[in-house]
Specification:
By secondary structure, the protein is mainly α. The protein has a domain of 61 residues: Protein of unknown function DUF1040 (Conserved Hypothetical Protein Ylqf, Chain: A, domain 2, Orthogonal Bundle), CATH 1.10.1580.20. 51% of the residues lie in helices and 0% in strands. The chain contains four helices and no strands. α1 packs across α3. The radius of gyration is 19 Å and the shape is elongated.
Length: 91
């Protein structure tokens, strides 16, 4: 893992861990793995899953999934027209 990813992981873990400081590190990692739907041994938990789940724990439960918010379209008709190469006009 690269240094910036380690720093990001430690920062996210610190923020999340401060919400429940009475948990041990292994309890915290196990809880995060369960929230992510990981049922296998903790040694098989990927770094990406851990970082993603830590990011999502800090977000509002109604917040859009990171990376998908940029693709969100409020106006479905305008999105279809734009996908067909037609620039919709404002009414």
């Amino acid at each position: 893992m690269h240094c910036h990813r380690i720093n990001e992981l430690l920062d996210l873990l610190n923020q999340s861990w401060q919400q429940t400081p009475d948990h041990s590190l292994m309890t915290m990692l196990n809880l995060i793995a369960q929230e992510a739907g990981h049922r296998d041994d903790l040694t098989t938990l990927s770094d990406d899953t851990l970082i993603y789940q830590l990011k999502m724990r800090l977000e509002d439960s109604n917040a859009p999934i990171p990376g998908l918010a940029k693709d969100n379209e409020d106006d479905f008709k305008a999105a279809i027209l734009r996908a067909r190469g037609i620039t919709p006009t404002k009414a």
